[in-house]
Amino acid sequence: MMKNIYEFSCADSSGQNIDLSSYKGKVLLIVNTASQCGFTPQYEGLENLQKAYSDDSFSVLAFPCNQFGGQEPGTNEEITEFCKLNYNTNFPIFSKVDVKGDHAHPLFSFLTKERKGLLGTENIKWNFTKFLVNKEGEPVARYAPSTTPEKIQSDIEKLLNS
What we know:
There is one protein chain. The protein is of the alpha+beta class. 28% of the residues lie in helices and 18% in strands. It has one domain (8-160): Glutaredoxin. The chain has helices at residues 42-53, 76-87, 106-114, 149-160, and strands at residues 9-11, 17-19, 27-33, 58-64, 130-133, 139-143. It is globular.
């Protein structure tokens, strides 16, 4: 039985395989993102968290997903360019993935089993669902799309200081 995210690897936006064990010892905020969503402006808050805590062993990991309203139709290159151009993002953006259903990326299958949503549901319901992962690679919290990055800041600080 998998206990942490370090057993997974994911393709980055250029298609290079990244072993998540390279993030050992870091607090992570894993987010399924989209460029044409009502929550897209949260990229700004995510980048603010990245800037505030990147020196403190923290990183946002963004996983674009086109499963909700077709709000992420672009290629990996277009998505990365959009984020840099509009939000000056510096956190890792991975290749587009499915986060639910038969073709869900194994990382998201793990995250949703470990941290269920409202009323115990595993399925991710929309873009910008967020998972907070501690320094041991264990998912410790799940946040709704409407929960802004700013509201998660104190939880990140607690994990960084623990």
